[in-house]
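Go through the following before class.
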Amino acid sequence: MPIDEILQHTFVAGVEHYATLGSTNDLAKHHAAAGRHRLPLLIVADEQTAGRGRGVNRWWTGRGGLAFSLLLDAASLGVSRRRSPLLALAAAIAVVDAAAPRLPSHQVGLHWPNDVYVDGRKLSGVLVEYLADGHVVIGVGINTNNTMTDAPHELKRTATTLFDLTGIEHNHTELLVAAIAGLETLLERLVDHPELIGRRADTLCLQRGLALSVDLGDQTIRGRCAGIGEDGALLLDTANGRQKVFSGVLD
C-alpha cells in the first residue's frame, strides 16, 4: 500500500499498514495510551482476526477486505462526545460517498446508527469509541475484495462485498483516500453545521417506513422509521407518538 499517497492526499499525519491484525481499534487505543504518535493516525489492516462491532457483535474482515481506524484528538477537532451519533453517521456517509461511484447500478445507503447497505445487504460498519484521555477512535470495516463465499454462515445472506457485487477487485488506496478525504470535510461540517450531517444521513436512510425494534438495554422501543433527525437520532413513530432514539441495538 503506497503510504506516501495517503499522506499526500489526506489529513492523516501517520499511517500503519498490516496484512493481518487482531483489531485496528484496539491497536489505535494502545497507541493513544502510549502517546507517541502524531495525530491523526491511520491504522489499516487487510484482515482482522478479532474485529469488533457495536456491543457484543464481531466484525468479520476476511482476507482481501479493508479495515481501518483513525485515532484523533477529539478536543482539537471540536468533536465532543455529545456528537457521537453524528460522528458515526459522518463516517458512514464518507464510506457511502467513496463506494457509490463504484456501484453505479446499485442502491447504496445507510442503516442507522452506523452501517452502509447495498441492495439490502451490509457492506460496511462503523465503530466510534471515545476514550477517557480525550482521544476518539473511528473504526471502519468495508467488505471490498473479500467474498461472501468465505464468510461465516450467518453472514452469507445478510452481507455483501464490492467484489461480489462487481466481479472486479478494487484499489484499497484509492478507496481509503476517497473515504478519509470525505470524512475530513464532514468533520469540519460537524463542527460548524452539524445539522447538515443529520440531513444528509436522512436522505440516505434506507429504513424509512420499516417497522423497527430498538433494544435500549432496559427497554425496547418499537415503531415505524420516519428517518433520521438533524441531531442524528433515529425517528420512530410509535403507539405513543414520535420518539427519538440516540443509541441502541436494532433487533
Summary: Residues 94 and 185 are 9 Å apart (CA to CA). The chain has two domains: 3-203, 208-250. The chain has a mean pLDDT of 91.
